[in-house]
Amino acid sequence: MLKLVVLISGTGSNLRALLDAIEASRDSDQPIDAEVVAIGADTPKANLALTTERGIPTFLVQPSDFPDRAAWGDALLAEIQRWQPDATILSGFMRLVPPRVVEALSPHLLNTHPAYLPEFPGAHAVRDALAAGASETGATIMIVDNGVDTGPIIDQRRIPIHPDDNQDSLHERIKIVERELLTETVRNLALGTINLKEIAA
Predict the structure, then answer these.
(1) With 90 as the cut, is the pLDDT of residue 53 above it?
(2) Whole-model pTM over 0.70
(3) Catalytic residue list contains 113
(4) Is residue 142 annotated as involved in ligand binding?
């Protein structure tokens, strides 16, 4: 079984969708052979309650508790490695992880992004797509590297931008596709039909 650690900073809506998909697949003819073994957060504002109600262990590693970013990263890495995951997923984790974390976990460190990379990288991808007057954007799942949304792409999909879209309406449609990409990537990792080392090579 594929063991996952997921890191969140906010409501955890993508995480909830992944947990629901894994659970719903149990009674299907194509079960997703994966388990989220722990959920981590960088802020107490993160919705860790959604995991405790499912009996999943959680951990909180706040940057403010450490003298610098590197020390925070080392503590975060120690918490992740304690669970010996096959992959770690940044799911709405709104902080760049330090290089030592990337080097220790890559290529088994994944992230979703609300744009069709390399278009519109960074924290404001949805706003930037609208500001640019683009007719389409997308969603991407990638391997994390030390750049800002520059890692090797695992999968991505285009999403049209409607004339009446605002940031909220567009982001909601993107999230639907992000969740589908994340679920399918987890399914394929569990099946062994994608090889992260080959993608990262």
Answers:
(1) no
(2) yes
(3) yes
(4) no
